[in-house]
Write a structure and sequence with these properties.
The complex is a heterodimer. Chain A is mainly β. Chain A has one domain: Sandwich (Immunoglobulin-like), CATH 2.60.40.10. Chain A contains no helices and eleven strands. Chain A is globular and about 40 Å long. By secondary structure, chain B is an all-beta fold. Chain B has a single domain, classed as Immunoglobulin-like. Chain B contains no helices and eleven strands. In chain B, the strands form two sheets. In chain B, strands 2, 4, 5, 9, 10 and 11 form a six-stranded mixed beta sheet that branches. In chain B, strands 1-3-8-7-6 form a five-stranded antiparallel beta sheet, with no helix packed on it. The chains are: A mainly beta, B mainly beta. At the A-B interface, β4, β5, β9 and β10 of A face β5 of B.
């Protein structure tokens, strides 16, 4: 079974804090993704990585950065958390070839106060 | 930028009824259209997907119908069960290996 794990299920941070969300996959997938999920807005892509140290901006990258130093690990960084970043964050991974499903982690519910 | 329009936003169906969720897309880089199912507290998981060299794909009670000329595809859940209560997302491929996801449909099946 493919497993995508995320470091925390729930996280509460204060405005201005630096926040790290970690994601690890065990299927040797080339691609990894970070999404945020908000009611009525669905899943919106923040960043995408297709290889170690490679990244591409998604639709809503402002206020976020990412790091991929190892193939299995993809980190999302909120440099200075703000209340409008309160959301559910989902990590996903997939093989590089087109037409392959994305496997999602359980999500991290982040609250910024 | 790819847009995927999904409707309805929420759906309430009696047990045994048919649930229908619709999606429309604008452009596609290649042909692979998945549907994901998400239960509360879980990440989305692939439910069923279609490569539109066919117009329909059926897996058990779940069927995808695809209309390439209209750029629309839909999910039909036959004999809906309370255990099907979840949020459903359609997705359409973007360039590269990305997908654009619909905004989701919250399905409630009443016993």
């Amino acid at each position: 079974d493919v497993k995508v794990t995320q470091s925390s299920r729930y996280l509460v941070k204060r405005t201005g804090e630096k926040v790290f969300l970690e994601c690890v996959q065990d299927m040797d997938h080339e691609n990894m993704f970070w999404y945020r999920q908000d009611p009525g807005l669905g899943l919106r892509l923040i960043y995408f990585s297709y290889d170690v140290k490679m990244k591409e901006k998604g639709d809503i990258p402002e206020g976020y950065s990412v790091s991929r130093e190892k193939k299995e690990r993809f980190s999302l960084i909120l440099e200075s958390a703000s209340t409008n970043q309160t959301s559910m964050y989902l990590c996903a991974s997939s093989f590089a070839a087109r037409g392959h499903e994305q496997y999602f982690g359980p999500g991290t519910r982040l609250t910024v106060t | 930028q790819q847009q995927v329009k999904q409707s309805p936003q929420s759906l309430i169906v009696q047990k045994g009824g048919i649930s229908i969720i619709n999606c429309a897309y604008e452009n596609t880089a290649f042909d692979y259209f998945p549907w994901y199912q998400q239960f509360p507290g879980k990440g989305p998981a692939l439910l069923i997907a279609i490569r539109p060299d066919v117009s329909e794909k059926k897996e058990g009670r779940f069927t995808i119908s695809f209309n390439k000329s209209a750029k629309q595809f839909s999910l039909h859940i036959m004999d809906s069960q309370p255990g099907d209560s979840a949020t459903y997302f359609c997705a359409a491929p973007n360039t590269g290996n990305q997908f654009y996801f619909g905004t989701g449909t919250s399905l409630t099946v009443i016993p």
